[in-house]
Amino acid sequence: VEVKIEVVIPEKERSKEEMSPNGKASPLIYRVNGTARHYHLEEHPIASNPYHNPKDVVEASVCHVKDLENGQMREVDLGCGKALLIKENGEFHAVGHKCPHYGAPLVKGVLSKGRVRCPWHGACFNIGTGDIEDFPSLDSLPRFQVKIEKEKVYIRASKQALQTQRRTKMMAKCISLSNYNLSSTNVLIIGAGAAGLVCAETLRQEGFSDRIVMCTMDRHLPYDRPKLSKSMDSHPEQIALRPKEFFCTYDIEVLTEMQVAAVDVKSKIAVFKDGFKMEYNKLLIATGNTPKTLSCKGKEMENVFNIRTPEDANRVVKLATSKNVVIVGASFLGMEVAAYLAERAHSVSLVELEHVPFKKFFGERVGRAVMKMFENNRVKFYMQTEVSELREQEGKLKEVVLKSGKVLRADVCVVGVGAVPATGFLKQSGINIDSKGFIVVNKMMQTNIPGVFAAGDAVMFPLALRNNKKVNVPHWQMAHMHGRIAALNMLAHGTEISTVPYLWTAMFGKSIRYAGHGEGFDDVVIQGDLDELKFVAFYTKSDEVVAVASMNYDPIVSKVAEVLAAGRTVRKRDVDAVVFLSFRTGDMSWLTGKGS
């Protein structure tokens, strides 16, 4: 059956580069109940002038052609907004100047081989189209017209695009929603975090026009989960990844407060906790992790929290203000919560089994520097001990007793002692689960069951950076890419994952950025000054740099991420040269070679 789908796209954006990566949408073939169905994105005629409203257009001369050398970027002002002007291989390009994720200035990012990487969180954008190529941003950059006249560079741009600095890629809609039984869907996505949302969006961007259902135990639409510990008083609507209207517009159905209890992969049926059953054709499991709880007496007491929802975070902030807080676990969540509450609470105490925070992840020297920063901000550490008991008074938490014998006053306790994969409901499904509960997938995010994919924090997948070793990478950026790869392979694209892990943590107004996968590192080479909290740390294993972390040293982490993404190897002996060439001189030529 030949069907044309409706494409929702503003008139002014109907330009060639926004139809698809190759400029023209290709037919998609998708099999539903054994019947091949073909879908075509509607091919709009390409107008010679894509800006149909002259009042919405600004054109300005921004520089002389010789003002920029190859490989240079410049932020230019068009009067009603700014653009990023780029020169690469003798050609000029102009795109939005801010990363759509958190607004980082891309002029301070990294330009390499046709794309610019955000200096803050590693999102990558194609300089020719503005399209996003790596996450965590959901939106692409607007692309502006560039012309050369009399050796002057002119940019022609939409005023609206200059103001918004973001562009949502063209998406399809469901054309046969009314024909579906409520208990059947073509694609079922279990979990509504970053992986689930990006999977749904990618399917629509690729022209998929059958029914998509996402289900989540949460009461909210997908939201920016990292902000639960970094910006704890944010309300759900403030951290929503997409507004409600977005899901309605693109026919992405979200079932909230719905828990899947079992999956029958032979019958292709998901069974919900309330008994409801839904048949699917393709399945994505993106359930993430479940926080570990304490095992001591009093763990069920009021005012003891695992921060899992916006309501949890908001409640902790309210209860902790001018009170005594005890945080158990110097994890990323525990440390970020401690930093956020330090200025609000009367006291913040942090209990940790290790002798230094982040030792396994950042190494002892970086961990000690971070610990000192916290101590300078009134956070008290109780290391190499555990909680033995939580004591109450009139039904509420009053004290935290440590195995060392120390008793801490506590009005609120936040538990951040790690998490386990939320995959218990799959134990009898036949889906391959390892001994720790992680779902095992291949490079295309496929499980051992045809038509069943998995993504996000609950999976073990082959990491190209580490010779395809199966790893678990519970990072926000990686969950986005997992979702995209899964969607592309639901559509039989045969796309393999090859992204470089990238994460960040924010504490007391300072950020640590990190790229790579340093598990099992045997040495740390540090450049800069740890005492001044201005440093870059290279994590090595058998003389090879496997990860890098920095504080106040942007954009070195993004630069190294580009090196690793290009398949190059950085050796321990090269670290001094890497820092000098990339950071102090700005010379990027070392990115363009091959091999080591």
UniProtKB/TrEMBL annotation:
Any one cellular-component term (Gene Ontology): mitochondrion
PANTHER family with a match to the protein in the record: APOPTOSIS-INDUCING FACTOR 1, APOPTOSIS-INDUCING FACTOR 3
Gene3D superfamilies: 3.30.390.30, FAD/NAD(P)-binding domain, Rieske [2Fe-2S] iron-sulphur domain
Molecular-function GO terms, alphabetical: 2 iron, 2 sulfur cluster binding; metal ion binding; oxidoreductase activity, acting on NAD(P)H
Family per record: Belongs to the FAD-dependent oxidoreductase family.
Protein name as it appears in the record: Apoptosis-inducing factor 3
GO annotation terms (biological process): execution phase of apoptosis
Domain of life: Eukaryota
Role this protein plays: Induces apoptosis through a caspase dependent pathway. Reduces mitochondrial membrane potential.
KW Iron (keyword) present: yes
